[in-house]
Amino acid sequence: MAPVITPAVGDTSTGPEPVAIAREHVSVHQSALLSAARSPSLRLRRLAAHLRRARTGCGYTTSQVAAAMRWSVGKVSKMETTESKRIKPADLDGLMDLYGITDPVERETLQGLALDARERGWWARYKDVFGNEALPDFEAEACALRAFESQVVPGLLQTPAYAEAIFLGGMRPDPEAVRRRVEARMARRAILTRFDPVHLHAVVDEAVLHRGIGGPEVMAGQLRHLLHMAQTPNVDVQVLPYEVGAHAALTAPFMILEFPNPLDPTIVCVETLNDALYLELPCDVGTYVATFADIREVAYGTARSLDVIADALGAVKAAR
Length: 320
Fold this sequence. Notes:
There is one protein chain. The chain is an alpha/beta fold. 50% of the residues lie in helices and 10% in strands. The protein folds into two domains: 40-117, Orthogonal Bundle (434 Repressor (Amino-terminal Domain)), CATH 1.10.260; 127-319, 2-Layer Sandwich (Endonuclease, Chain A), CATH 3.30.870. A hairpin with an 8-residue loop joins strand 4 and strand 5 (267-271). The longest helix is centred in the N-terminal third of the chain and has 19 residues, at 40-58. Residues 6-26 and 28-35 have low confidence and may be disordered.
């Protein structure tokens, strides 16, 4: 019986990539996991939002719920802010009883969300790489990505050799750490080739095509791969030319992630040196959506961009 409380008021264009490490990075098991396209973080966020709506709909404060359930206020708050990564079935049943959620389908759905939220995605094996970063988690269930890069090829479109060269460019790189980071980055790419792949729309500054990361051989392989991927049905690449000059995205690289379920709001990931910042307030997301629209408008179209990438590849080949 539920407690009773009083409501409160108120490089593949010419075949497989030549780098042997590429074949090691995405195992069959990882690909299967990625094909499942399930994000524990999104499930937890959806559950937390539902619980918050149910509580406020009943007119209860977190203090009243805590008193009724004989929990701390912090426990209730953490359930509603996704700080609690695991919600016990019995605790969830108690909250649903308290909030008057009696529909069997709704109760089963919420328990299913709690169960899904406890799953560990493939990225859990790379905690040393990703730390608490949720990007691979969110990418797993995204249906569309919009990315802007001004310095390097977007991570989802990188080759192993190119990614390795980037990581080796850091301060005092540890070879094992670099290997793990490359492996993790290559595993992320599977969302582009799985069944029902994500759609990626990338805008890259023209400088990306001419920054000689890793040397001519590495750059040639990377540009071939970029050219190949830009011709696949689910990937659009636009080049932002030098001649544009100042533009709306003279800032840090960012990615806009959209999800198929309307209950999962669009979020923006802004990369930093040590971590990533995730924005989900409508005003913040709206700013980045408008910025992406602006740069997409002034960038070369997809067909012209293919020619520009091919020209850059030709220049690299001629310089070897």
